[in-house]
Amino acid sequence: MSVVISQSIHPVLAKIQDLLSKIDGLQLPIDYRWNVENILVRQVTRELDQALPSQHGHGRRTASMAVAIGKRLGLSADILHTLRLSSLLHDIGLLTLPPSLLSKPGPLNSHEYIAVQCHSRVGAELLAPFHFLKDAAVFIAHHHERWDGTGYPYGLRGAFIPLGARILSVADAFDAIDISAIELQEKRKQVAYRILRAAAGTQFDPDLIKHLYSLLHSSPIRGEGASPHPFLSQPTR
């Protein structure tokens, strides 16, 4: 089943749609299927990296962190697989935004910020028709919800936000915070953690921030340091 995408939004969406359709049609045993899905979805993320150069590598780094947190929680293999796929594809909805908005320097105004808020919901709608991404689409739909209920797109709060979406939210923010001015990678991780810890109980699930602390102090996380994320700024009034 495919999604009708207007190529006037972004031509790469049609190519991604075709790739996802081919993956969805695979008939393989579950263990082989997961391996193939991981490999092929990573190919899809390369298309995303080319279309969104400011986000290059962000999906892969987010997936590494999200899966590491999920393993720390003892999540099952199937949920970890879904978490990996959702992390790799979580920003696909950005491709439906005008290029001028994606490349705009500085904070967004209120109208632009509202447009950006749609990207998680739209991204989920793009992926939900593909059977192997139905659960991943749920995580993507809610990864900008906030623990205190002030997030988007649906204003869910606390434990009503799916756990996978809460994990994705933490991993996404951890990589997205722009602290590239700090040269040492370990120092960047410490600063990023402190920023997330300050938002524990408001933006993020406080238990997950505790697990993040434990994870950072027990084993290294693969991947490069933080990358700029233009949509962390609040809208100007």
Verbal overview:
Residues 1-8 and 222-237 have low confidence and may be disordered. The chain has eleven helices and no strands. The chain has 237 residues and is mainly α. It has a single domain (12-216), classed as Hypothetical protein af1432 (Orthogonal Bundle).
Please write the CATH class name: Mainly Alpha
Shape: globular
H-E order:
HHHHHHHHHHH
Radius of gyration over alpha carbons?
A: 17 Å
How many strands? 0
Query: Portion of residues in helices?
Result: 55-70%
Portion in beta strands: under 5%
According to CATH, the homologous superfamily is: Hypothetical protein af1432
* CATH architecture classification name: Orthogonal Bundle
- Judged by helices, strands and strand pairing, the structural class is mainly alpha
Return the domain count. 1
In short:
This protein has helices at residues 12-24, 30-51, 58-72, 77-89, 99-102, 110-117, 119-127, 134-141, 163-176, 185-198, 206-216. The protein is mainly α.
List the topology elements.
Elements: H1 12-24, H2 30-51, H3 58-72, H4 77-89, H5 99-102, H6 110-117, H7 119-127, H8 134-141, H9 163-176, H10 185-198, H11 206-216
Helix pairs in contact: 1-2, 2-4, 3-4, 3-9, 4-8, 4-9, 7-8, 8-9, 9-10, 10-11
Features:
Hypothetical protein af1432, globular, mainly alpha, 237 residues
